[in-house]
């Protein structure tokens, strides 16, 4: 009998491990396959260019407009190992996006997720359009998502095992996250607020040496930030005013709303790309709140009040309410002091908790505060959805029954279809996820530049040219950053002249003109009268900026 039970458990475990491994393989494939299929986004080109300059010239100084230094140092590092290219530039984001899935496993091992929850959460992380798209994207947000997960795992293990190494890992995750992008403090504040709640309500107890661990973790955080922000000591002045410049810059960006949008901007993105996860998160929240249970307990409470009024000896109250009252601090100044002393000393009883329910409570708290924070922030850009999507996935898998898991798997067909559309379409796509993406039409412009000996770039709309024409290839391009006089063009003997169609030449003698799309974006104005049709067809007009390319006509040829 025992042998049969043991064999059944073994088969169950192998089935779970096998499915988890299969999802991980799918995650790897979706992140790394044809990683250079699309041209670099405008921001990707800038990040790669700065990393290339750091590698070749050793120059880097923190600028809050381009976020923290971590991305540039690790990208320069991988360029030094594998060469500088689009594919290599995206390897670190793809790796970190992949590692989000195996980081679910230690959360499962601690009992905060069961097998069904772990597998469905892994599936959502694997095939989510935003998770896949921005794991193949040289921006800082997938770095923040990764460090957030590392921080979460480290904190769970620290309060489970009370070992210093987990505090050090948490400190490193915060330090590297802070060195990646300025929104990491939002994560730290959310996690810190919930941790205070757990400690105060006796759901966790501070370890005996928590002050030492906190100090060492903070030292690791500060040390990492000091090294990276000072450019390994080359710019110590950044440590004095860098934080102030960051606050001033992002406050001004919030007020200016350069890339503004309504507070419900990210809800629209969830509806476009992540609707199964959004719906299941709503269901999970309602299941957690348990509205029918609240109503029934309220009715029972009224009946109990009538049949056995409070104050009557032997009256029975609600068990949960009684437990909460028992756990609450005494309502006196001395009671508060005693409770605080108990917390700081790491003594006192710890209340038993339902780990999966408590983790769901935390995920809902994390999700709601994230939704509010990013709804408030004036800059509305698609990659910030990652920091709301991550907790939403955890909320979506709450109370994951077999039936609900089956629904989640079937609904993932939508996620897979959207992922293949936005990630693996080798052409310009009319989707808000791209923000302002460099057009595939540029490949024809690149071919013309490659065939030319001298090229004039008479416009300030020239990115991503500095990235694609770097090193020895840069010598053939002359950047004027504005429209220049025609005699300057003729005197320069250029084979190719590139301008922006908003400020160009009607004609250039001896040249033939062609227009190519530089970059593109989803245009609400062009699609607002047909939004429902657009939702299903994903077609219509796109906004764009265009280049006008003047190619010199060979001598003896008429135009």
Describe what this molecule looks like in 3D.
- The chain folds into two domains: 2-288 and 355-424, no CATH class; 439-552, no CATH class.
- The chain has 26 helices and six strands.
- It is globular.
- Helices cover 61% and strands 6% of the residues.
- β2 (455-457), α23 and β3 form a beta-alpha-beta unit.
- α15 crosses α20.
- A six-stranded mixed β-sheet has the order 1-5-6-4-2-3, covered by helices on one side.
- The protein is an alpha/beta fold and 559 residues long.
- It has helices spanning 2-32, 42-57, 70-82, 86-89, 91-99, 104-109, 115-127, 129-135, 141-161, 164-178, 184-200, 210-229, 238-256, 265-273, 275-289, 291-307, 319-327, 333-345, 355-376, 386-396, 402-424, 442-451, 465-468, 486-492, 524-527, 531-537, and strands spanning 437-438, 455-457, 477-479, 496-500, 511-522, 542-552.
Overall pLDDT metric: 89
What's the total number of strands? 6
The main sheet orders its strands as 1-5-6-4-2-3
Shape designation: globular
Provide the number of structural domains: 2
The assigned structural class equals alpha/beta
Strand content: 5-15%
The low-pLDDT segments are 308-330
Rg, alpha carbons: 28 Å
- Largest sheet descriptor: 6 strands, mixed
> How much helicity do the residues have?
55-70%
Helix count equals: 26
First and last CA, distance: 91 Å
Describe the structure concisely for a colleague.
The protein is of the alpha/beta class. 61% of the residues lie in helices and 6% in strands. It has two domains: 2-288 and 355-424, no CATH class; 439-552, no CATH class.
């Amino acid at each position: 009998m025992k042998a049969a039970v043991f064999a059944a458990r073994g088969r169950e475990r192998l089935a779970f491990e096998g499915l988890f491994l299969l999802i991980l393989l799918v995650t790897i494939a979706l992140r790394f396959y044809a990683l250079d299929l699309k041209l670099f986004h405008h921001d990707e080109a800038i990040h790669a260019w700065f990393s290339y300059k750091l590698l070749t010239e050793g120059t880097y100084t923190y600028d809050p407009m381009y976020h923290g230094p971590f991305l540039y140092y690790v990208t320069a590092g991988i360029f030094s190992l594998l060469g500088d290219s689009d594919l290599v530039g995206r390897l670190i984001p793809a790796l970190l996006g992949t590692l989000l899935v195996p980081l679910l496993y230690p959360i499962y091992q601690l009992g905060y997720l069961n097998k069904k929850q772990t597998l469905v959460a892994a599936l959502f992380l694997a095939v989510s359009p935003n998770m896949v798209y921005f794991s193949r994207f040289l921006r800082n947000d997938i770095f923040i998502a990764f460090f957030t997960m590392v921080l979460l795992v480290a904190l769970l293990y620290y309060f489970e095992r009370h070992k210093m190494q987990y505090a050090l890992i948490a400190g490193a995750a915060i330090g590297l996250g802070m060195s990646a992008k300025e929104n990491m403090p939002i994560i730290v504040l959310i996690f810190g607020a919930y941790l205070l709640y757990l400690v105060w309500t006796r759901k966790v107890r501070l370890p005996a040496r928590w002050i030492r661990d906190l100090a060492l973790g903070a030292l690791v955080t500060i040390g990492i930030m000091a090294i990276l922000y000072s450019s390994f000591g080359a710019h110590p002045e950044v440590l004095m005013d860098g934080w102030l410049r960051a606050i001033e810059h992002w406050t001004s960006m919030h007020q200016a709303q350069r890339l503004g949008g309504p507070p419900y901007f990210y809800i629209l993105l969830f509806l476009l790309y992540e609707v199964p996860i959004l719906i299941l998160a709503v269901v999970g929240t309602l299941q957690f709140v348990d509205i029918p249970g609240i109503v029934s307990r309220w009715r029972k409470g009224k009946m109990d009040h009538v049949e056995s009024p409070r104050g009557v000896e032997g009256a029975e109250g609600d068990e949960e309410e009684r437990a909460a009252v028992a756990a609450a601090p005494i309502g006196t100044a001395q009671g508060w002091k005693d409770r605080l002393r108990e917390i700081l000393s790491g003594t006192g009883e710890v209340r038993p908790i339902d780990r999966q329910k408590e983790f769901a409570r935390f995920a809902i708290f994390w999700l709601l505060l994230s939704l509010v924070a990013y709804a408030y922030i004036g800059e509305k850009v698609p990659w910030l959805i990652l920091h709301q999507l991550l907790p939403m996935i955890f909320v979506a898998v709450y109370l994951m029954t077999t039936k609900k898991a089956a629904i989640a798997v079937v609904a993932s067909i939508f996620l897979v279809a959207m992922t293949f559309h936005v990630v693996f379409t080798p052409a310009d796509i009319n989707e808000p996820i791209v923000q302002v993406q460099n057009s595939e039409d540029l490949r024809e412009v690149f071919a013309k530049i490659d065939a030319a000996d001298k090229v004039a770039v008479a416009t300030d709309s020239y990115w991503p040219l500095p990235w694609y024409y770097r090193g020895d290839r840069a010598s053939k391009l002359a950047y004027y950053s504005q429209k220049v006089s025609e005699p300057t063009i003729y005197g320069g003997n250029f084979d190719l002249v590139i301008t922006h169609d908003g400020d160009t030449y009607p004609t250039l003698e001896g040249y033939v003109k062609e227009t190519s799309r530089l970059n593109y974006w989803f245009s609400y104005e062009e699609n607002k009268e047909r939004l429902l049709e657009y939702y299903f067809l994903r077609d219509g007009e796109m906004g764009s900026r265009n280049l006008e390319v003047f190619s010199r006509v060979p001598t003896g040829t008429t135009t």
